[in-house]
Amino acid sequence: MAKKLIEYYDHLNSKGNYKAINWDQVSDEIDKSTWEKLTEQFWLDTRIPVSNDLKDWRTLDDDHQWVVGHIFGGLTLLDTLQSQDGLAAIRKHVITPHENAVLNNIQFMESVHAKSYSTIFETLNTPEQIDEIFDWSDSEEFLQFKAKKIFNIYHSDTIDPLKQKIANVFLETYLFYSGFYTPLYYLGHNKLANVAEIIKLILRDESVHGTYIGYKFQIGYNKLREADPKAADDLKDWMFNFLYELYDNEEKYVHMVYDQVGWSDDVLTFTRYNANKALMNLGQDPMFPDTAEDVNPIVMNGISTATANHDFFSQVGNGYRLGQVEPMKDSDYDY
Ligand SMILES: [Fe+2]
Ligand SMILES: [Fe+2]
User: Fold this and answer.
1) Ligand 2 centre and the CA of 14: distance in Å?
2) pLDDT at 15
3) Which residues pair with 18 in a beta bridge?
4) Less packed terminus of the chain by CB within 10 Å, N or C?
């Protein structure tokens, strides 16, 4: 840990003066390619006319409207956590100055995401419903459980920084997907097209975020494995136990939100499938037996029209699992 800080504070020169970031001297090419990818795909919610979806929205019954409004309330809460706490925690332990710049971009986009989710329900719902959704997300037991668990990891001064990266990737690539199920389901049914447009843009961002932070985790984890295999095993145990603990809570959250429309089993399959993706980002083997074939094909159809998210995961994830870390090429990000 201390060593990491010393490496980073290499940007102080031998006289102790502060050094400017130099993009012509990049020690990790993945910082540069990620920066280029993220800045190329920059977007803002104000470009997407969500109000054009009001016609579709009015065809949904009360239960389905409730689900749509509240999953976006939940997603707003979780990306508020990412934007306010998540990236700030990760940024304390960067190795390169370019990594810092990439994390600044990610942090800002998490604010765009949080604003976008609330734009959706603030456009579709009535003022009373909007207030109720915010009250719900600020107090709902199972939603708050995941937010507080991860918040506490982000704010611990004594925790291994690698655990903060694990928490970040679990949130990005795993815990959001019980919410993403709904817009992808409607996308697969050609409904709520503008809402889907926002979700497509967010998924495109999240696939890069999860892969990048997972990659930075793997650098630290591989060093730890070389230096202290027992400590690496303990960290791996912690990771899988944490994933189980979050899954236990996620089951309760999903039933509470989705039982009324009968989608809970399908949403949980999708959640397990994405938990495996999160583990892949962290260079680990999958834990659940669920594969793409098990996920509701309408939702997979939605996700495949959204992004080639999963090609991206498999290309990069498999490479890292084999321990062959190579600089990311532009084609790794092709959608
Ligand atoms: Fe996000
Ligand atoms: Fe993200």
Assistant:
1) 36
2) 79
3) 12
4) N
| 140, two tokens | 């709902």
pLDDT less than 70: residues of the chain: 1-11, 304-335
- Catalytic residue chosen out of the listed positions 8, 9, 18, 117: 117
Question: Would you list the domain boundaries of the chain?
Answer: 27-325
Spatial separation of the C-alpha atoms in residues 88 and 103, rounded to whole Å: 8
Indicate the residue type of 242: F
Q: Is 258 a catalytic residue?
A: no
Tokens representing 200? Answer: 């497509």
Q: From ligand 1's centre to the CA of 71, what distance in Å? A: 14
265 Cα distance to chain centroid? 22
Overall residue count recorded for the chain in this entry? 335
Report CA(195)–ligand 1 centroid distance (Å).
15
* pTM (2 d.p.): 0.88
CA-angle at 329, arms to 328 and 330, nearest 5°: 125
